[in-house]
Write a structure and sequence with these properties.
9 helices, 2 domains, NTP_transferase_dom, Spore Coat Polysaccharide Biosynthesis Protein SpsA, Chain A, two-stranded antiparallel ribbon, alpha/beta, single chain, globular
């Protein structure tokens, strides 16, 4: 199976940087200015270095099939990271933005990277601030993905408590239909849905579905929607799933750590000690 991996690392981590500055202990002040994807965690020099092990164990050749999109501010830091991990420097691209205020947004960054790297195959998209629990096996997910038809896509899901629905994309799943996702809500109130299946930014798209990224952005632009309406990848999933653009299926995992602010980063440190 031919698949390329795209890691999203173009965010500015404004909440984390704000938390670090406000921390009265200043125990993490040495991390100011470091993009979230490059934060050290456990025995790894960077969060995305943990993904290298996961991808390699799953049969992905990171030296040829891994790509990363970042911004102009953090580009040099990612290039420095490639030199110690045998990743080609030309597999890193900058979206050209210089601040959170002029960011493209995650979905537009996906489109930008696909065009920049001329990716023309099935693609795995991973948020650069995302970690899965140690029992995650990429090979199991890839086997499931390979069994789907050429028009179907796959993501992962895990159960969360009621109060966590506001932080996550929540999917409704029909287990009788091979875990078909029938509905997607982006960060809903608990009373909006009975489902507690959270869906992180980890998407396996078939080659035939990649064009939906650009279609979503053009539809949003035509409507005159603000960046917030097309920034998060969950907005794209809601549009694709609820609008019947393609079928998404779910694979269950035990959980994730999403590094947003300082508290979640400390959680990641404790988990990977």
């Amino acid at each position: 199976m031919s698949i390329k991996v795209l890691i999203l690392g173009a965010g500015y981590g404004t909440r984390l940087q704000r938390d670090i500055r406000a921390d009265p202990t200043q125990a993490y002040s040495h991390l100011l200015g470091i993009p979230k994807a490059l934060l050290p965690v456990g025995n790894y020099d960077a969060l995305i270095s943990a993904w290298l092990d996961v991808l390699t164990d799953g049969g992905i050749d990171c030296g040829s099939d891994l790509y990363i999109v970042t911004n102009a501010v953090n580009y040099d830091a990612f290039i420095a990271w490639t030199k110690t991990h045998n990743i080609p420097a030309d597999h890193i691209c900058s979206d050209g933005t210089t601040a959170n205020e002029n960011r493209l947004g995650a979905v537009a960054d996906i489109e930008y990277a696909i065009k920049y790297f001329e990716l023309d195959s099935d693609i795995l998209i991973i948020a650069g601030d995302l970690l899965f629990y140690r029992d995650f096996k990429l090979s199991d997910v890839l086997i499931r993905f390979s069994s789907l038809s050429d028009d179907d896509c796959l993501t992962v899901t895990y159960a969360v408590p009621d109060e966590f629905t506001k932080r996550c994309g929540i999917v409704t799943i029909d287990e009788s239909l091979n875990n078909l996702i029938t509905h997607f809500l982006e960060k809903p109130d608990p009373e909006e849905t009975v489902s507690r299946n959270a869906c992180p930014c980890f998407y396996l798209l078939k080659k035939s579905a990649i064009s939906l990224i650009s279609e979503f952005l053009r539809v949003s632009e035509k409507k005159g929607e603000a960046l917030e309406q097309r920034d998060a990848t969950g907005k794209f999933l809601a549009w694709a799933i609820n609008g019947g653009k393609c079928k998404f299926y779910a694979e269950y995992i035990s959980g994730r750590i999403d590094v947003g602010g300082l508290n979640s980063y400390v959680e990641a440190l404790k988990y990977f000690e």
